[in-house]
Amino acid sequence: MRDRVKLFTWGSWICMLVLWLPLVAAAETGADADFDLFGDEYSDGQSVAQAPIYDPLIGLNRAIFKLNDFLYLRLMEPVARGYARVTPEGARIGVKRFFKNLGWPGRVVNNCLQGKLRDAGTETKRFVINTTVGVLGFRDPALSRYDLQPVSEDFGQTLAVYGVGDGPPVTLPFFGPSNLRDALGMIPDHFLNPVSYLDPWELSAGVRVVEVENSTSLRIGEYGDLKKEALDPYTFFRDAYKQNRDQRIGE
Prior knowledge:
Layout: H1 2-25, H2 58-86, H3 89-102, H4 104-113, H5 117-132, H6 141-144, H7 155-161, E1 169-172, E2 176-179, H8 180-191, H9 201-217, H10 222-229, H11 233-250
Antiparallel strand pairs: 1-2
Helix pairs in contact: 1-3, 1-9, 2-9, 3-9, 4-5, 7-8
């Protein structure tokens, strides 16, 4: 067990260094068109869903929300702040692009399952261009040079297209607000992500840690700002998640 913990720790740091060192030397500066902050998950808080949401697991969900809140503010964000101090923003944006590029299999499969063959082709073009010209996806010439907009689809959206309803809201440990359909959809999405096949599992987990902390470092303070504006943080993030998902499914 001790050897596994050591391997996980060293795997995390090695992955961080492998991704960090070459990028520091060639870091880009300024904002990035692919830099979406919390936009992927939540609305801006001005127009969250107004219709009452049936939430039979609200007691459990609130408890998990408090746990996630504690872990984010006391562990994830402090680590991300330290990482941000030693890693230029351009390098961190490059790492975010790299991991997004790795997610191509899931996006193309779900686009195909939804009958969006043109979007699947766009995602494939983006992957080829960004993997080659964009140096493994650290840059995004598919967007900047060819205006190929990303088309993100996941299995939760695919299930919705086939008529599967949201189900009750669920708050997942570490992952945050979701619903039963999207939570189940995370399982096939996991197996479509190449990172899940890294061996041993500690290495895969270490890479995931790098991905999450890097992403967190690009949106430091946003969660706290949104939370301050909410009368009830739990219901705010629950309703905002539903509104955002409904919007993405309808696109």
